[in-house]
Design brief:
By secondary structure, the protein is mostly helical. 68% of the residues lie in helices and 2% in strands.
Length: 167
């Protein structure tokens, strides 16, 4: 069954509807359009990342929604930490002009995070739930990271403006 294309079914505690919604969001962000003749998909995350200034921050918010839902489902802090690192790598490298845009097309943080979530939900007895303080610290970190992602393009634009206008 590991090579099966069908996703596994989770029935305890009504996780299935939430997981289905998170899979759909992940697919929308990372794989909404499949390039014909290949298995390569393009999602909205790299497309909205092309928007100057707020595009990467908007993608960050969508990605962190998946992590917030995972925390509410009781995923352990270690798994949530790995999920956060996937999104941080995606967001920080994605904020670099041109290189970041290319990176966004290849790095699928949301798909990786869904795989981590599914693995954690498969064996809930082996996991220790995240506590509320982790979720609070996570929220503060999200806010600070969003500020950084918005500040980087603004600072770059200001520097380029000064270089080209001489003021």
């Amino acid at each position: 069954m590991p090579n099966s294309s069908k996703p596994f079914v989770i029935t305890p505690d009504g996780y299935a509807p939430r997981l289905k919604r998170l899979r759909q969001l992940s697919g929308l962000l990372d794989n909404i359009i499949t390039i014909p003749g290949t298995q390569i998909g393009i999602g909205l995350d790299p497309i909205i990342g092309l928007l100057p200034i707020g595009g990467d921050a908007l993608g960050l918010i969508f990605s962190f929604y998946i992590i917030i839902e995972a925390a509410q489902l009781g995923v352990p802090a270690a798994t949530l930490g790995r999920m956060v690192m996937n999104v941080i790598v995606d967001s920080l490298v994605g904020a670099i002009p041109m290189l970041g845009d290319l990176f966004d097309f290849g790095w699928r943080a949301n798909n990786y995070n869904i795989l981590l979530l599914e693995a954690a939900l498969k064996s809930p007895h082996q996991n220790q739930k995240a506590d509320n303080s982790f979720i609070l610290i996570f929220g503060i970190g999200l806010f600070l990271l969003a500020i950084v992602l918005i500040s980087i393009p603004v600072i770059l634009i200001r520097i380029l403006w000064q270089i080209f206008t001489g003021s």
